[in-house]
Amino acid sequence: MAHPFSELTAELDDIAQQGLYRSRRIIESPQGINLEIDGRNVVNFCSNDYLGLANHPDVVNAFKAGADQYGVGSGSAHLICGHSAAHHALEEELAAFTGRDRALLFSTGYMANIGVISALLGRGDAVFEDRLNHASLLDGGLLSGARFKRYAHADAADLSANLEKAAGNKLIVTDGVFSMDGDFAPLNELAVAAKKQGAWLMVDDAHGLGVIGEYGGGIVEHYGLGQDDVPVLMGTLGKGFGTFGAFVAGSEVLIETLIQKARTYVYTTALPAAVAEATRASLKIVISESWRRDKLKKLSERFRLGAEQLGLQVMASSSAIQPILIGDSQRAVNISNALLDAGFLVSAIRPPTVPQGSARLRVTFSALHEEQHVDRLLDALAKIIAGCK
Ligand SMILES: *Cc1c(COP(=O)(O)O)cnc(C)c1O
């Protein structure tokens, strides 16, 4: 008799054959630019903790004080008895920070995206998604039951052609800064197309909030777009903010609709109040320490210029995400492993996270890196990529 799951074993073998097998590395140190892995120190170039706040003493202390004040567990969902004064204060501060009427916390970004899209759309409606959108946005669109249409990456003309044909409520959904490419959505054009066709525009700015714009307001600050232009703004707290969770910001009607109808809001436990307290501390730093954004920009530009000079295939990114295109998945993994041996943690991103044949090294920077880290990484890349099959 066959073992249970014998079909799955064959599938796992197949995944490995294609160079697509994924495994975890065990980190023994706090998050930061230096990580301890298997007793070895490596320089970290793959975190989304862009501003270096995940282990900032103010954030850690606020978390501890929050646990002292509220305990660890939040006890229930927000609508039962889990919505603490800490959550409420953070929502008000996030609304002010984003220049929106209100903000609503979700326990993760994945859940926020699924909840929002399913709350706003149903059968008879239509959702329009950039081809390179994050998995959670695509899943949210599919789950909503609305007609699901992908448009060519960052192509407002392709979007407009599709919009004209649609009936029902129409929602355009895009990453702000694309997570695996680092480029910006053409938000000004998308906002014009949305208004012209009476569609709603939703932006997931997981990689832009706190990081992009003089004040850290993200992609909407970069383009100067308000709540009328981008009525649904989603952000995550586990990246630039260095903590955990997510939020959606927008009008009173939007937020009240989500409280009534977003199933991933209603039917899940609120994130710990201490996490909200930690995030309030990190938001203060995001607002007041613009040097972190300036430094990040300098480091990213230094890397990009250096990589170009080495003849590496950089991508059209002006953010802290600077991928090097490799193509073949196994080769990307081999290079990533060789970099680790040389003391640099850089992740190989492969399909289905990115399109077939576009495996890449996703290099990310932190405000805590120094120029010498960038230069050392460039030296290692030059040697390793040339010698790696
Ligand atoms: C990370 C990410 C998410 C998911 O957020 P989590 O809080 O990690 O669940 C959603 N959208 C984008 C674009 C992301 O990069």
Summed up, what is this model?
The chain is α/β, with parallel strands linked by helices and 389 residues long. Helices cover 43% and strands 16% of the residues. It has helices spanning 6-17, 57-70, 78-82, 85-98, 109-120, 135-143, 156-164, 187-196, 219-223, 252-261, 263-266, 273-288, 291-309, 329-341, 371-387; strands at residues 34-37, 40-44, 102-106, 126-130, 147-151, 170-175, 200-204, 232-236, 246-250, 321-327, 344-345, 347-349, 359-364.
What does the model show?
Pyridoxal 5'-phosphate binds at residues 109-110, 179, 207, 236. It is an enzyme of class 2 (transferase). Pathway: Cofactor biosynthesis; biotin biosynthesis. Residues 41-381 form the Aminotransferase class I/classII large domain. The structure is a single chain. The chain is of the alpha/beta class and 389 residues long. It has helices spanning 6-17, 57-70, 78-82, 85-98, 109-120, 135-143, 156-164, 187-196, 219-223, 252-261, 263-266, 273-288, 291-309, 329-341, 371-387; strands at residues 34-37, 40-44, 102-106, 126-130, 147-151, 170-175, 200-204, 232-236, 246-250, 321-327, 344-345, 347-349, 359-364. The strands form three sheets. Strands 3-9-8-7-6-4-5 form a seven-stranded mixed sheet, sandwiched between helices. It has a three-stranded mixed sheet with strand order 1-2-11. β1 (34-37) and β2 (40-44) form a beta hairpin. The longest helix has 19 residues, at 291-309. The relative contact order is 0.16. The structure holds pyridoxal-5'-phosphate (PLP).
